């Protein structure tokens, strides 16, 4: 069976095509994405018509590229991209009228739990720790112990929103990085009393880190990536102070050359606050979690 999952995020719109035999046999056949920056079209808490038109155009293009998958089941959901828009329901209605595509608007808790489902499927349900899933406009935090979710919440910042709020140039200055980190930690407000041994980071910024760090240090970024928190912090400081960072981002992860550093600084600040010894970067994501939830 073929499944098509479209994920409407604040920064990017992604489409994954899966072949599924059962919950333990899932293959990602194809992945496409468009950097749409929908958060940039939010004015007075509403998405303007330019943003809605852009969304409809991209979704229509995605749908047309799946014409050869007649028997595939197609699902579409939105996260903070529409949660932040007061006119979300009218957007969903207009998209349906123009594209015949039904959008499911995920709540903050649903998004966090679906990401967690993908992580547990990959690393094993016996694991424990904290998961951070950073998108363009929000970051989900889940504290878990095995199959038990101890807490789940969404924080109102992501890589794109942090770039817009704190960065004036291509990359954050050291002062901008400090203000950004202070804001993130103020929003983070970690309430877990016991320090966690392991932090799991998923989302686009995390995958971009694996790609960049893997190429610079000749590591396999396609496997389950692992790094000590102290190494992550040191790498962030290195990028902030290096004269080569902008060129490296342009060459290795050009699609995230502006949003990567704000996102990574935020993740580093939270990792340091959590106090985990090890940071893991699972390959799973909210789209895989969504697929697992419907199988």
Share in β-strands: 25-35%
Q: Mean pLDDT, as a whole number?
A: 93
The protein's oligomeric status is single chain
Strand order of the largest sheet: 10-9-8-11-13-12
Terminus-to-terminus distance: 11 Å
What are the low-pLDDT stretches, counting only 5+ consecutive residues below 50? none
Helix content: 40-55%
Q: Give the overall silhouette.
A: globular
Category by helix and strand content: alpha/beta
Radius of gyration: 19 Å
Q: Spell the H/E element sequence.
A: EEEEEHEHHEHEEEHHEHEHHHEH
Major sheet characteristics: 6 strands, mixed
How many β-strand stretches? Answer: 13
Distinct helical segment count: 11
Mind explaining what this structure looks like?
It is a single chain. The protein has 295 residues and is an alpha/beta fold. It is 44% helix and 26% strand. The chain has helices at 49-64, 80-83, 88-99, 108-123, 159-166, 174-188, 204-216, 229-241, 245-252, 260-274, 286-294; strands at residues 2-8, 12-22, 25-35, 42-43, 46-47, 73-78, 104-105, 128-134, 139-145, 148-155, 198-203, 225-228, 278-281. The strands form three sheets. It has a six-stranded mixed sheet with strand order 10-9-8-11-13-12, sandwiched between helices. Helix 1 (49-64) packs parallel to helix 3 (88-99). The longest helix has 16 residues, at 49-64.
